[in-house]
Structures are given as C-alpha cells and as structure tokens.
Write a structure and sequence with these properties.
This protein has about 325 residues and is α/β, with parallel strands linked by helices. The protein has 12 helices and 13 strands.
C-alpha cells in the first residue's frame, strides 16, 4: 500500500559559517570526519550528535525508502537548526538557506519528496514573509517548535502567523524542541524521553486554551510523536478544565476535547495500545504515518506497526497515505493514486 511518511528530517551536507557571518556563535556546523558520516557540532566545538549520509543525501534516502516500501517522504529540517535564539534577521537568513535547500530537493525528486520549511519564529512579521516565500518556492507547509524561547504557541504574538498559514492553506508540523526543564534532567536522555512528549502537550493545550484553534478552525496543524503526552492525559486536562475554569477556561470556554478532531497527529507512538487509544479519540482521518527518519527514536521500518495491527483496508490506507494527503492539501493524483 502507498506510504507517505510525514515525519522525516534532512539537513544540507554543507552549512555556512554562521558565526563568521553574524559575529556570534551557537549555530550548528557539520564535521565530515569520514566518508558518509558527520558530527553535528555547535560552532563553539560542543558535539550535538552523529549523523550518516542518509541525513543529507537524497539518493541514499530514496534507496532506503525503496527498501522499506516508503513512497514519499515529507522533509523538514532537524529541529536543532531552528535557531529561534538568534537575532531575527540572522534567523531569517538561516531559514532561507534551509528552505532553498529543501525546495531544490523537492524540485529534483517531486514524486518522492514534499517539503516543509522553517521560519524565524522569533519575529512574526519576518516569519510571515518567509512563509509566503516558502509557498512560492513549492513548499507545502512549515515545521515549527513547540515553544519559541519559552513563549507558548498560544501567545497572541503568534496568532497572525497561524492566521496566515490558515489563509495560505499551508500545513503546520509542530515538533518539540528546547524542552522545558531540559537543563535539570540531562541524565538518562530524559529531555528526549520525558521532555519531548510533555512539550507537545504543552503546545496543544496552549493553542486550545488560548482560543487559537477556535478562531482558526481550518488551520491544518499536525503534532509530532502522536501528540506526545496529550492523548494519554486528555482526561486530566478536561477534568482540570471542568473543576478550575477560573484558571483554565479564561480565554476559551469550550471543552478541550472539541479540538481533537480539528488537529492532526503522526503515528509515532511506539506502542499498539497507544495507537489504538489515539485512533479512538481522534479517528484514522486525523492520524498519519510518521517515522522520525533517520533518527534512532524513530520507527526503523515506517508503517510496520500499522500494518501489523489488523486494521481493515480503508483504515490502513487512511493511516498510510489518506490523512497525509488531507493534511498537506494535495490530491493523490500527484503520485498516481
């Protein structure tokens, strides 16, 4: 069955010397220390992570896609590249570089890749400007972080950007980054195991409680990692809304559950029971295959858990490609469906 993987990351093979260009550091560079391998390094010399050529080489990606029966990948940058902490104009320059790279790959392989741009979220006006350019160069949406320098996505300063995404019918993919409490839980990889799921729930709740999703019912917004801890704690969230409306329902009087079928989720939950729970509350029309390729916390063979769970053909097709097409706003005929 045709597979569209909505959660995959890519990075250019060569990254400019942003420290030299901007006069300050903190940016990521690549140390290609041997063939087909590189270390992502902050320009102060601190190692971030090791990656392989499948993180930058589209030909290698296509080979691995063929091996795992993935027909289309939706590409987005590695979240460490967001650079929301940088000066806004510099963040725009980084975003433009990354987005041009994505657009080139999509243009070269239009039947295998779809692109989501990145934005200088530290400045809403510049973000809208780059969003418009993303659409012009053929990207179908954007990937953003779960917070911007610890400002929640429901902050009024971001509303105009979400309204622009809605108006331009650009898909939004929300990926956790700069996890709250990260500095206090470095051991055991807890920022990735605990912080990321909490971050995604933080973003969803903020967009619900602020009224952003109420005001923009057509916004095509999707959350990584199956919505993080949000689906598992929706009962607690609703209970808090009911018993302390003076604290929770101050900007939006509607039950949080109202919005579950207005947003999208990827399928990356690593657990059959959790995926069934997500489907029970959101429905297959709101869940799309996502693998987090090519990183180790992802699903090594995208869609294998979905295919093993005994869904009927219609549900399986929805999860593997139909929901992705709906979220991206494209017709399956683009891929011969």
């Amino acid at each position: 069955m045709f597979k569209i993987d909505i959660h995959t990351h890519i990075i250019p093979a060569d990254i400019p010397d942003w420290r030299g260009a901007f006069g300050y550091g903190g940016f990521i560079t690549l140390d290609h220390y041997k063939p087909c391998c590189a270390t992502m390094v902050r320009d102060d010399g601190k190692r971030f992570r090791d990656i392989e050529a499948n993180c930058w080489d589209p030909a290698m990606r296509i080979g691995e896609m063929d091996q795992t029966d993935v027909d289309v990948q939706v590409l987005s940058t590695v979240p460490v590249m967001f650079s929301y902490w940088a000066k806004a104009e510099d963040g725009l320059q980084v975003s433009r570089f990354l987005n041009d790279h994505l657009a080139e790959i999509v243009s070269e392989f239009p039947l295998r890749f779809v692109g989501l741009g990145t934005l200088p979220m530290q400045d809403t006006a510049l973000s809208i400007k780059e969003l418009e350019r993303c659409k012009q160069i053929g990207l179908l949406g954007v990937q953003i972080g779960t917070n911007v320098n610890q400002r929640n996505l429901g902050d009024p300063s971001f509303f105009e950007l979400f309204a622009a995404c809605n108006e331009m019918e650009m898909a939004v993919f929300v990926h956790p980054w700069e996890m709250m409490g990260e500095a206090d839980m470095q051991k055991y990889w807890l920022p990735w195991l605990v912080g990321m799921p909490a971050e995604t729930s933080r973003a969803i709740c903020s967009l619900i409680f602020s009224g952003t999703l109420e005001k923009l019912p057509g916004l095509k917004i999707c959350f990584a990692h199956g919505g993080g801890s949000f689906p598992a704690t929706l009962g607690r969230i609703r209970h808090g809304f009911d018993v302390r409306p003076d604290l929770v329902a101050v900007d939006n009087p509607n039950d949080p559950a109202k919005y579950v079928d207005r947003v999208f989720f990827d399928s990356l939950v690593h657990d059959e029971a959790m995926l069934r729970h997500l489907l029970n509350i959101a429905g297959p029309g709101r869940v799309a295959l996502g693998s987090d390729y090519p990183f180790p916390l992802g699903e090594s063979k995208p869609g294998s858990m979905i295919e093993s769970m005994g869904f009927d053909k219609e549900t399986e097709e929805q999860l593997l490609n139909g929901t992705a097409l709906k979220w991206l706003g494209i017709d399956g005929s683009r891929f011969g469906l």
